[in-house]
Design brief:
InterPro entries: SecD/SecF_arch_bac, SecD/SecF_bac, SecD/SecF_CS, SecD_SecF_C, SecD_SecF_C_bact, SecF_bac. Helix content is 63%, strand content 7%. By secondary structure, the protein is α+β, with helices and mostly antiparallel strands. The protein has two domains: 224 residues, Multidrug efflux transporter AcrB transmembrane fold, CATH 1.20.1640; 74 residues, 2-Layer Sandwich (Alpha-Beta Plaits). β3 and β4 form a beta hairpin.
Length: 371
């Protein structure tokens, strides 16, 4: 832990660091490849929408059923003629979901299930969701997501600038696409819990991005008044100064979510936890990646196109070339970032920097006394 703390301090002070911005084309390529894979998976497999979105019936059996999940799934598909999703709950009851059924079909399916499962029909609870209500829920979910994205862009444009708002918007779309694509590839059911998970991870991704943007805004204040760093270099310093913080918060958030997904959904068989935990797990990881490798490098790309930033880059490179010709290093720059020295500059004082020269030295004899 102490080594990690020392690394974080050295990253924050710029003593060490990785050039994320310089290698941004690599990160862009990786993100494009992952996004294309997610889109292909979404186009080929599609999303497995829950009955809350497409309508259908949900049957809940009594506790401690002896029938297995596979048997109940077979019975439900034979009775309905549609695909069925069966989950075994913690109390031993079965939750059977069948999409595309109406009220008349629901009664017939309930009677058939009672015979196959050897359970009184009155003890099987049936809930019916109409197609129109499912469409309304789906539309509300998309409206909520759209409103969230619009408000995010407006806020970032006001708090920072439009380039940062655009970069954050791209990062959020990146996170949504990857999460939805993973859902399509894995085949998990999309429920209202999935939508809640998506909105949650978008807020978390935005938090990481805003932390880096705030540091970048602070460090680039009056950037054109110096000639030591370009905008891209300061952006890279901002990423490195918040890197350990982003990693720590992401890992801490992923641990309980991973417990929900792998232990709750996998080991304990609580299938309902999969709906929200998978979106949270994938989204948190994608959000941390996009805030470091996508959002800030994209801001640097957009800012470097400005005439002022182009002129600053030319001055920085010119000063460095001048320093190299004099045999100096960039660390020898003056406090304002300039490598130039005035023509009448006096030789530097040699010795401890905290020992000022005496005011009387050199005015008298060797002892420094006045004559």
């Amino acid at each position: 832990m102490s080594k990690l703390g020392n690394l974080g301090a050295r990253l924050h002070h710029g003593e060490v660091g990785y050039d994320f911005v310089k290698n941004r084309k690599i990160w862009y390529g990786i993100s494009i490849l992952i996004t294309i894979t997610a889109i292909v998976g979404l186009a080929v497999r599609g999303l497995h929408m829950g009955i809350e979105f497409q309508g259908g019936a949900v049957f809940t059996t009594p506790k401690n059923m002896s029938a297995s999940v596979s048997q109940a799934e077979e019975y439900a598909e034979e009775a309905s003629g549609h695909d069925a999703i069966v989950q075994k709950l913690g109390d031993g009851s079965l939750r059977i979901q069948i999409a595309g059924t109406d009220t008349a079909q629901s009664d017939q399916i309930k009677e058939a299930l009672s015979e196959d499962l050897k359970v009184d029909a009155e003890r099987i609870n049936a809930d019916l969701v109409g197609p129109s209500w499912g469409d309304q829920i789906a539309n509300k979910a998309w409206q909520g997501l759209g409103i969230f994205l619009v408000l995010v862009v407006i806020y970032l444009a006001i708090a920072f600038e439009w380039r940062m708002a655009l970069a954050a918007f791209v990062a959020l779309i990146h996170d949504i696409t990857i999460t939805v694509g993973i859902y399509a590839l894995v085949g998990f059911e999309v429920t209202p819990g999935t939508v809640i998970g998506l909105l949650t991870i978008l807020g978390y991704s935005l938090y990481d991005t805003v932390v880096v943007f705030d540091s970048l805004k602070e460090q680039t204040r009056d950037i054109t008044k110096q000639t030591r760093w370009t905008y891209s270099e300061i952006a890279n310093r901002s990423i490195n100064s918040t890197l350990v913080r982003s990693i720590n918060t992401t890992v801490v958030a992923l641990l309980p979510v991973g417990g929900l997904l792998f232990i709750g959904g996998g080991v304990l068989g609580a299938g309902m936890l999969n709906d929200i935990s998978l979106s949270l797990f994938v989204g948190l990881a994608a959000g941390a990646y996009s805030s470091i490798f996508i959002a800030t490098p994209l801001v640097a790309d957009l800012k470097e196109r400005e005439p002022q930033m182009k002129a600053l880059k030319k001055r920085v490179l010119a000063k460095r070339a001048q320093a190299a010709a004099k045999g100096e290093s960039p660390e020898d720059a003056t406090s304002d970032g300039s490598f130039d020295e005035p023509d009448d500059a006096t030789p530097a004082v040699v010795g401890p920097r905290d020992q000022p020269a005496s005011r009387t030295r050199g005015r008298g004899g060797p002892s420094g006394k006045r004559r």
